[in-house]
């Protein structure tokens, strides 16, 4: 196994040797320490917008206190973009130093794949090849894992392509796990809420994905926003209890409640304009969201909270959302 991953790395190095991608590690043969993986609730913050004047790329630790995972957005099939690109552009020594500092503070650093700009299944990309390529990016740029923000919203509703997306995701997830073993690397997915609603997708969307490869996925950063029409998730009831894909509905459908991380926009500018215009863009002000979280915890949920994105999502936002719920 070591031999084969080394030879894969070597092959990739040859391929990349002529490009600007930073892959070298000062100790390429040294076994890597396992990535820190939060064992309790996950508090995940995305960073896509560059942070002005910040040579360390990541949101400053004192501004994201309480979060334990940072998701760098986004890694696409043609390479890293935005904050993922900024991270990859650091020299290896600097990057490893920053990573150690964040890990020491209890914060894992993960890259997020795709987002709304790439539809890899529709584009016909091979899931195994792409998973191998993206795993190498994780290894080469000193990351703690990968988040799969696959947003094929039209494909999953296409009755002529029944199960195509679900199958692609299963193969992609299995291939990622082969390279990034469970317990050593974080592997999360970031589906939108309705994809857990029974009958919403002809192929079952994430209810199918969870049945086939859910055991390989550490948790779901569920986007309870960025969609219309209803349920909207704009109040505690549609977020937690009603509509078919609220948190406790998803649990009833058979998904481990400890994997259902509640994702929300940090500020209104993190919801698309179309979603703001539509009723139920999913934005809930942090104080109100805090009351929902408290309700969820008292009903047996404690998976955690995700927010898109820094700087709207910061220590102040999270403190208000957490309250004393997780104390
Ligand atoms: C968080 O962001 C808000 C503005 O959205 C700002 O007022 C506050 O000072 C920030 N908090 C921290 C700890 O950076």
Automatic annotation (TrEMBL):
GO biological process, one term: carbohydrate metabolic process
Origin superkingdom: Eukaryota
An example Gene Ontology molecular-function term: hydrolase activity
Domain GH18: 41-327
SUPFAM superfamilies: (Trans)glycosidases (SSF51445)
InterPro entries found in the cross-reference section: GH, Glyco_hydro18_cat
Transmembrane stretches, start-end: none
Keywords, comma-separated and alphabetical: Hydrolase, Signal
Signal peptide: 1-24
Protein name (record): Glycoside hydrolase family 18 protein
Species in which this protein is naturally found: Polyporus arcularius HHB13444
